Amino acid sequence: MFGFLLQRAWQACIVVVAMSVLVFCGVHAVGNPVDVLISPDATQDIRASVIAQYGFDQPLWRQYLGFVGRLIHSDFGRSFVYNMPVSELILSRLPATLELTLAAVLFASLVGVPIGMYAGYRPHSFVSRAIMALSILGFSVPTFWFGLMLIMIFAVQCGCMPAGGRGETVSLFGTEFSFLTADGLSHLVLPALNLALFKFSLMIRLARAGTRELMLSDTVKFARAAGISEFTILRRHVLRLISIPLVTVFGLEFGSTLAFAVVTETIFSWPGLGKLIIDSITSLDRPVMVAYLMLIALLFTLINLVVDLTYALLDPRLRKGRA
Amino acid sequence: MTAPPFSETRSALLDVSNLKTWFPGDRGEVRAVDGVSFSVSPGEVLGIVGESGSGKSVTGFSIIGLIDEPGRIVEGAIKLEGRELIGLPQEELRKIRGRIISMVFQDPMAALNPVLSIGTQIRLALEAHERIGPKEVRERAIAALAQVRISEPERKIDFFPHQFSGGMRQRVAIAIALLHRPKLVICDEPTTALDVSIQAEILSEMKALVSDLGTALIWISHDLATVASIADRVAVMRSGHVVESGPALAVLTRPQHDYTKTLLNALPSRASPGELLLRSAGVPDAAPPARKEVPDDVVALGSPYLVINNVVKTFAKPAGLFARLQFGLAGAKPPSASNAVDGVDIVLNRGEVLGVVGESGSGKSTLGRMAAGIIAPTSGSVRLAGQPVMSSGTMPRKVTTRIQTIFQDPFASLNGRMRIGEILSEGPLAHRLISRGEAPNYVRQWLAAVGLDPGYANRFPHQFSGGQRQRIAIARALAMQPDVVVCDEPVASLDVSIQAQIINLLIRLRSELDLSLIFISHDLSVVRHLCDRVVIMRRGRIVEQGAAEAIYARPQNEYTKRLLAAMPMLPRSVAGLEPATGPL
Q: Quick check: A237 and B162 CB within 8 A?
């Protein structure tokens, strides 16, 4: 197991280094921040001094080396726009996004999987057909439309839910969280539901396909032949067997939701990372873009590592080879 | 064991009468079981024999109440100790399953849950019918494993299925089936997926267990010989009907029904070696097309042709980048490389059929692949008439066509998206054995030669049965006009009657085309029937080789002796069998 962890850490390093090069070059190919940073009527001297100050006169590779050098001292640079250290800026926004994403993904899995398993267990019943039809809808309805509808119905018409913002927060380990107060929780529900919709449908369909296939397998037949009840078969045999593809998708979806919660965050004015990255792209705030993309790459490799470790936990056949 | 009188039904444990289980299909109902009646007395072993599609498994699943949707029992009665099972509510049936009737399946790897430990699976089965504490569960589970002769049950109870061998897995499944001391156990092909020697062990242990516990057994199998060695009574099934039933010895030695006779006559173990099976009087198949050119280095019949010299094949475990760096830096050899074939010398004479026999994992298939030049040996050489068959990973174009392979699974080895005509002509066209214009006629000739309608050239593989597909696979191999054909378990997945036809075809084509064959099989009776010389392999090495008659009559090696002893044999009738008339 130790060797496996070491190997994965090594792979993660390579991914992060490759990512830093790609991101750095890519971001520098987009626009010229000088035009945004300096007012058009500034003098030529001021222009030159600002360019020199940010190092834009250097060749790209030298800028990259400078960036890496600062990185080693855990300095991601300063935001052009907010004029504060990027690491501070991102860390102040990360908990909000993490909270929202986790709520969405957990809801999608904890509710979606049992529903999907039911639909796979009774594939021909009316309820299952209705579930499947609705899950198609869940795939095809655009997130922004669904979000606007949620606001229209629950915030505007009924007035029972807040339309946006994080609400009251509680400080825990030095960061602010919404889910611990009633007000914060009510602010969390709608955006989490909106963000969960696609994943919810995905989990239902995955759980249904897996369950449907397994119900015809010899494993289930043998368990039935031993007189084990249907509920125990579903809970102990089927759930364990379908959990491997589910965990894979859970990991991937968790990562991508974390990175691309933008639409939902914008609609519900959730002060998360998504809004920050959109703002920094429009204002060509390069240090924020680079740091954000690197953070996402790191989170992805981390999530994948956890998923891999979970595989070994779920499937004993994988344990031996990696021990 | 003495068989109880056949007409006895009053004290029957299970009484099945006029059972009909149908499956709705595209073209009306499929009558999988169509009016089957039999009874099983307490402690009795009933064998149900039949080929695939005969309805024998569906009969078993009907009894235990596990017919898959949309199948249903449309008529009949299944009485367990006088109580009707058909129409019972699901919960009542569940209480019977595992406690009074239980079942063992063909493939224990598929039946056991791969992600739950053996102990957990036994616990779930125990808790299905009893309320017991964790301590007693463990004790009972250990006792159950000990009962089916699993060594160190205290330790093995925490194992997962993949940590057991195939035979051990089946023992675990049997242990689960016997947990609640059921009155009836239904075994659906329980030894088919196992090696001969394991099969023999399981058979004798099962026999002892059921007589100790007084459990009745329904033993469903396509293999007449295993049924003969365990069953008191036998029912022979064909397309949903029982065509013949009675005491096992009587049915297997003095069969009354033509179908039973045909089944028995199809067995190679009942014919003299080399003889055509079934002795059917049908029209002989057409002769295959003539060879375009005979290579000038072909040796005379009976002289050494394909020479395998000290071949070794090592399958190294794939190592990741980091592991490779690690070993590269340390200068050490990667661990746990296993030799699938470990120094084998074989000389195949021209025109000879050489049998390669071994249990799973013996390296026989790997050897076959190296002989055919599909994979390169790690060391050693394979030469055909002096030319290397494969060196440094590439095959010389000339030799390629001269060695062909027929694989075990005719469903996997034919490309489902190609028409039969394309499948047969692809190779010969690529090697310019025929021209485009000649191709359609060439394909028709080959189809006729393997006993298929020449008009089938435009069909796709899925339109054929398993036996027909294997004929196509044979035609594909032979259309390349090879001298040597490597047959890797070509009849292992086929029913006995189809197996007999394929064996006949190989016997005929071999003499018509002067072929040399390497025939890889785990089935000792088929090998005896077909082969001139036999090589016995174990763990990548040859343990014994020699003329087929000599090895079967006077085996020298201990392992060979064990293999031959484990071979299930049919009781031979005194008078012998009269041949069945007419084809199937």
A: no
Nearest to A232 by CA among A242, A224, A241: A224
CB contact under 8 A, B98 and A217: no
Q: H-helix or E-strand containing B517? A: strand B516-521
**Domain-by-domain residue ranges, chain A?**
86-322
CB atoms closer than 10 angstroms to residue A154: 18
Q: Kindly provide the ipTM of the predicted complex, given to two decimals.
A: 0.78
| Residue B85: CB atoms within 10 Å | 21
- Residue of A217, A225, A317 with shortest CB distance to B103: A225
Annotated domain spans of chain B: 11-100+184-265, 110-179, 349-566
Was domain A86-322 assigned CATH 1.10.3720.10?
A: yes
Domain B349-566 fold: Rossmann fold (3.40.50)
Determine whether the interchain pair A216/B107 forms a contact, defined as Cβ–Cβ distance below 8 Å: no
Cross-chain Cβ contact A228/B128 below 8 Å: yes
Pick the CATH number of B11-100+184-265 from 3.40.50.300, 2.120.10.30, 3.40.630.30, 3.10.580.10: 3.40.50.300
Task: Write out the H or E segment, with its range, that includes residue B341.
Answer: strand B338-349
The whole-angstrom distance between residue A10's C-alpha and the CA centroid of its chain comes to 23
Q: From the list A218, A226, A241, which residue is nearest B98 (CB)?
A: A226
Cα–Cα distance list, B240 to B33, B56, B68, B325 (Å): 4, 8, 17, 62
pLDDT one digit per residue (tens) for chain B, 584 residues: 444 444 444 578 999 999 999 988 777 788 889 999 999 999 899 999 988 888 899 999 999 999 887 888 999 999 999 899 998 999 999 999 999 999 999 888 889 999 999 999 999 999 999 998 999 999 999 999 998 888 899 999 999 998 888 888 999 999 999 999 999 999 998 888 788 888 888 888 888 888 888 899 999 998 888 888 899 999 999 989 999 999 998 998 889 998 888 888 888 887 778 777 765 545 566 778 877 666 667 777 888 889 999 999 887 655 555 455 544 444 444 445 578 888 899 999 998 999 999 888 888 989 998 998 888 888 888 888 888 887 555 555 667 778 899 988 888 888 888 999 999 999 899 888 889 999 999 999 999 888 888 888 888 888 888 888 888 999 999 998 888 999 998 888 788 888 888 888 888 888 888 899 999 998 888 899 999 999 999 988 999 999 998 999 899 999 999 888 888 777 664 334 444 443 33
> CB distance from A1 to chain B under 8 Å?
no
Same fold, B11-100+184-265 and B349-566: yes
On chain A, the residues whose CB falls within 8 A of the CB of B66 are: 221, 224-225
The interface residues of chain B toward chain A in range 45-84, judged by CB-CB distance below 8 A, are 64, 66, 68-69
Q: Do residues B355 and B536 touch, judged by C-beta distance below 8 A?
A: no
Q: Of the candidates B68, B103, B111, which has its C-beta nearest A219's C-beta?
A: B111
Is any Cβ of chain B less than 8 angstroms from the Cβ of A238? no
Mutate to test the interface with B, among A2, A5, A214, A219 (most CBs of B within 10 A): A219
| A125 and chain B in contact, CB less than 8 A | no
Of B98, B111, B116, the CB nearest to A227: B98
Strand locations in B215-329 (E):
216-221, 233-238, 241-247, 304-315
Query: Are B98 and A228 an interchain contact pair (Cβ–Cβ within 8 Å)?
Result: yes
B117 touches A at CB < 8 Å = yes
Task: List CB contacts (< 8 A) between A237 and chain B.
Answer: 113, 116
Of residues B110, B128, B180, nearest to A218 (C-beta):
B110
Name the minimum distance, in Å, from the CA of A242 to any CA of chain B.
11
Alpha carbons within 13 A on the beta-carbon side of A256: 9
Euclidean distance between CA atoms B460 and B441, whole angstroms: 18
> Which is nearest to B85 in space by CA: B32, B22, B30, B13?
B13
